[in-house]
Amino acid sequence: MKIFIDSAEVDEIKKYSGIIDGVTTNPTLLRIAVEKRKEVKLKDYIAEICEIAGKGRPVSLEVASVLPEKMISEAEYLYRNFNGIAGNVVVKIPISVGSFGSSIDGLKVIKEISGKGIPVNATLIMTPSQAFLAAKAGASYVSPFVGRVDDYIRKKLGISFGKEDYYDSSAVQEYKKLKLSEAKMIEDAFKLYDLEGNSGVLSGVDLVEKIKRSFENYGIRTEIIAASIRNVRQVYQIMIVGPQIVTLPAYVLEDMIKHPKTEEGVKIFYEDAEKSGYRELFEG
Ligand code: E4P
What we know:
The chain is an alpha/beta fold and 284 residues long.
C-alpha cells in the first residue's frame, strides 16, 4: 500500500519526502497553508509542492469551481501550469457538485478530462456507486472519504464525537444483533438493518472494502485512495482491506510511529549503552 501525505504544507511535505509516495491537497488544506504565510504567491507555492514531491509521486490538485465549463478549464490550467515541473499532477474533481449545479456535472467533467489524457482523482466519494461511476468515466483514482462517512453515520445514530475519534462500527453491529432478537414485527427488523442510514455502508472502512470488492468483480484498474483518515486505528483497518493507497495527515503519520513502550525501550538501551561503555566503542 502506498502512503500519500494529505497536506498542502510545504514543510510537512519536505519532512516526509523519501517516506511518502505522493501528496493530496484540497482547497481547505491550501487555505490553511496560505493563511500562515503573508506574502505567498499561490502559483509559486503550488509549484513548490509539485517540485518537492518529485517525479513519480503524484500530487492531487483540486478544481475550484462547480460549473462544468469552469471545472474543465481549471483542470486544464492546473495540468498545463504545474505538470511540467515534475510530471506528477493529478486533477481532483468532485464526483458530484450537487446543489451547486447538476449532480451529473462532476461525472461528465471526469470523463472529458480523463479523455484528454489528464489523470483524474475523483474526490468526495461517499458510496460504492459513486466510485463505480467515476471509474467507468475514466478516473485514474477514486478517493473514498473514510472519516466523513463515519461522521455522517455517527450523526445519524446520534453519537457525539470529536474529529479524531475512532468510530467502532462493530459495536453498532452487536447492538443490532441484540435488538433483532427483540424485534416484534418484520418492519422493526428492516429498520434495524439500515440503522446507520447509509444504504448498507456500515463505516468509512466498510466503504473502502465495498469499493475494492466491486472493482475486483469487474477488473477495474482505477486505484483507490483511502482518504479523510483521522486516526491510526482506521489506518490498521484500511491496511487489512488493502486499497492501493492511503492518504494521511501528518499527525496520523506521526502517531503511526509512536508507542510508549518503544520510547521507554530506546531510553533504557541508550542508558545501558552508556553504563556498559558500549557507546565508547563508536567514538574512536
Ligand atoms: C482527501 O484527499 C482530502 O484531502 C482529505 O482526506 C479530507 O479529509 P478530512 O475529511 O479530514 O477533511
